[in-house]
Write a structure and sequence with these properties.
- With 227 residues, this protein is α+β, with helices and mostly antiparallel strands.
- 38% of the residues lie in helices and 17% in strands.
- Strands 1-2 form a two-stranded antiparallel ribbon. It has a two-stranded antiparallel sheet with strand order 3-4. A two-stranded antiparallel sheet has the order 5-6.
- A hairpin with a 7-residue loop joins strand 1 and strand 2.
- The longest helix has 49 residues.
- It is extended and about 95 Å long.
């Protein structure tokens, strides 16, 4: 609260609730009005005039000027929610690590984390207590179905991964076998070395290129002038 609220100029009033029912939480009330140097409350918002492309005030047709209200601070900016949630996650994970706990939290949604998983719904204190007493609730049923769906989704993804790896492995094997067969047919580097007519053995063919053509399953050297 000090880092995120008080140090920004806000007054924070908080109350921690923990009845031992598994739902500890805190309520925080914050001010939107800034404090002046003399200790008095300042204005929450102020009037700002609308300006045209030349920076001049725009008449409202009633003898006045078009205007709007704007906050004197950015404390009520919705973008702060992301900052505060991220700070809460960081502090919580630091406390969990200090306590030697393996759990960690993340303020981002599964979608933002890149996790293909269905999020559960918040039970709330009443439904949580009923579920602990063995009483099924609508929210509890929804979460049980979500858990089953996530388990099935995980199994499907695992099977797809195994199939992909199997196909990829067989593809590599097929490519290797195809290359070996090609080398046997047209004469790869090893076949050239075994050729009975390499041009290096005949001075008359010096500087010429040798290719192999197949006729009725036999190799025939064909010499062509080097380009």
């Amino acid at each position: 609260m000090k880092d995120n609220f008080v140090d920004k100029g806000m007054c924070a009033d908080f109350a921690i609730h923990d009845k031992g029912t598994g739902n500890p939480h805190v309520h925080i009330m914050l001010t939107l009005r800034p404090l002046k140097e003399n200790g008095q409350w300042g204005a929450k918002c102020r009037k700002a005039y609308d300006l045209d492309e030349n920076g001049q005030r725009i008449p409202d047709g009633k003898g006045g000027w078009k205007n709007h209200r704007e906050d004197t601070t950015d404390w009520n900016d919705k973008g702060n929610v992301e900052i505060w949630r991220a700070a809460w996650a960081a502090y919580t994970n630091r406390a969990l690590e200090s306590a030697g706990r393996p759990e960690r939290i993340d303020h981002r949604s599964y979608k933002r984390q890149g996790i293909d998983k269905i999020p559960s719904v918040h039970l709330g204190p009443a439904a949580s207590q009923m579920e602990k007493r063995g009483i099924c609730t609508d929210k509890g049923e929804v979460n049980r179905q979500i858990a089953a769906d996530n388990k099935l989704l995980k199994e499907i993804k695992a099977r797809i991964t195994r199939l992909y790896q199997l196909v990829e492995g067989r593809g590599r094997e097929a490519a290797g076998a195809s290359k070996a067969q090609h080398d046997r047919l047209v004469g790869g580097p090893a076949a050239v070395e075994r050729s009975p007519h390499p041009h290096r053995q005949n001075p008359g063919f010096a500087g010429k290129r040798c290719t192999i053509q197949l006729f009725a399953g036999k190799r025939h050297p064909v010499y062509a002038a080097a380009s």
